[in-house]
Amino acid sequence: MHSSNTPPVHRALVTYSSTATGEIRVKIPSLLGANSEVSISYIGRRDPWAVPDIGEQIVVTSDDANLTNVFWVQIEPSASSSSNMDGGFPDSSYVGIDEINAGGV
The whole model's pTM is what? Predict the structure, then answer.
């Protein structure tokens, strides 16, 4: 659940990504159907580019209903839990899409 001030999050499928340019394009079937895609904003991101793999599912949100800027929602581990990392996010920092949609975050 989200308030009228909080933009909804959506599951997206990565259709294109480039580590050279940082460009990421996704399909958001729940909003745009199966054939349309949008680009992820560069706002808040920096070089060197971390990009998801093509075919990966990611969580996105936007700043308005027109999808003017679409953002990749990422959870960063805290410094205190970084020692627990084994190639991924530590369990204590993982937030699932179901938790986000349920308003648990």
Answer: 0.68
